[in-house]
Amino acid sequence: MSERDGRVAVVTGGGSGIGRAISHRLAANGFQVAILDLNGTSAKLVAEEIRAAGHSAAAFGEVDISSRAQVDAAFERVRAEFGPVLVLVNNAGLTGFKKFQHITDEVWRRTLAVNLDGTFYCCQAAVPDMLAAGWGRIVNISSSSAHSGQQFMSHYVAAKAGVIGFTKSLALELGPSGITVNTIPPGFVDTPMLRNSESHGLLGGTVDHHAELTPVRRAGRPEDIAAACAFLVSEEAGYITGQVLGVNGGRNT
Ligand code: NAP
User: Fold this and answer.
1) What atom in ligand 1 is closest to the CA of residue 61?
2) For ligand 1, atom 44, which residue shows the shortest CA distance?
3) What's the rounded Cα separation, in Å, for the pair 45 and 61?
4) Which atom of ligand 1 is nearest to the CA of 92?
5) Is residue 15 part of a domain?
6) What is the CB < 6 Å shell around ligand 1?
7) Is 83 a domain residue?
8) Helix axes 40-52, 17-28, angle to 10 degrees
9) Closest to 173 measured CA to CA, from 75, 120, 241
């Protein structure tokens, strides 16, 4: 089978930035793309863009992936409309900059809830379909900051490092069932999340300044992450699992 057979791919956070590019790319490759996003309006817009391009997609937002009940209900709707979920891209994420001593319990828990619990809930919702099919692909979007560490982001980096460890462990467990699990840690990709950090003076310089310091001399594009993701969910990537595929212009090696 190839992805052109219309396998169902769920993309969380597919209404913006990297998730939007992944949704477009997987739909262009023949997947039926289900977009789950906290922002139901942007999810709907992206699904409309994809359908206007002649591909298959639907929005199932507003869905907060940190709520198991909302995740389970959304997956039920996806199954009813499209069929079993064989590809899952855990992309939705919540960033934040705080001095360590200013991280409250609430901020800590919310950051882990979205980035780590959400990934766990979505995997538990999707894996039964993959086990039944004897085939599945999971890609978790982590962060290059989990390689390097990042000041004022210890809560976010802890969550994303958790995603990397989770990915490696799940890959070992699900490999015998035909399911691969990999993670892409993006670095410095030009999205609303990055521009928001820039506008609040949190990047330690402008995006252009950082682009000059990047080995490939540009910021990443959402399409760079989408291309790597499209490969990892393809048939031909079946011998790749438990891997961390950095897409960061050489900023982390
Ligand atoms: P983005 O433009 O802010 O898009 C993230 C999307 O996820 C938004 O539509 C957001 O909705 C949604 N979302 C947030 N919390 C959610 C929740 N609880 N449930 C469901 N959806 C939720 O961010 P991005 O830059 O594309 O980032 C995508 C992923 O890459 C994230 O996991 C991020 O941590 C990771 N990443 C990005 C970079 C980078 O350079 N851009 C670097 C490293 C890692 P709202 O707009 O309503 O919040």
Assistant:
1) 20
2) 143
3) 11
4) 7
5) yes
6) 12-13, 15-19, 37-39, 42, 63-66, 91-95, 114, 118, 141, 143-144, 186-189, 191-194
7) yes
8) 30
9) 241
pLDDT tens per residue, range 60-96: 989 999 999 999 999 999 999 999 999 999 999 999 9
Alpha helix segments (H runs only) across the chain: 17-28, 40-52, 68-81, 105-112, 118-133, 145-148, 154-174, 192-199, 207-213, 222-232
Any idea what the Cα angle at residue 122 is, between residues 118 and 125, rounded to 5°?
Answer: 145
For residue 100, the enclosing domain spans 3-188+222-237
Domain total for the chain? 1
Residue 253 lies in a domain: no
Residue nearest to atom 17 of ligand 1 (CA): 64
Report the distance separating Cα 140 and Cα 198, nearest Å. 25
Q: What is the pTM of this model?
A: 0.97
> What would the pLDDT profile of 162-182 be if each residue is shown by its tens digit?
999 999 999 999 999 999 999
Examine the residue annotation and report whether 121 is marked as an active-site residue of this protein.
no
* 227 found inside a domain: yes
192 CA distance to ligand 1 middle (Å): 8
Distance, C-alpha 105 to centroid of its chain = 25
What distance in Å separates the CA atoms of residue 179 and residue 111, rounded to the nearest whole number?
A: 28
The rounded Å distance from CA 18 to ligand 1 centre is 8
> CATH number, domain at 92?
3.40.50.720
Question: Residue whose CA is closest, atom 43 of ligand 1?
Answer: 143
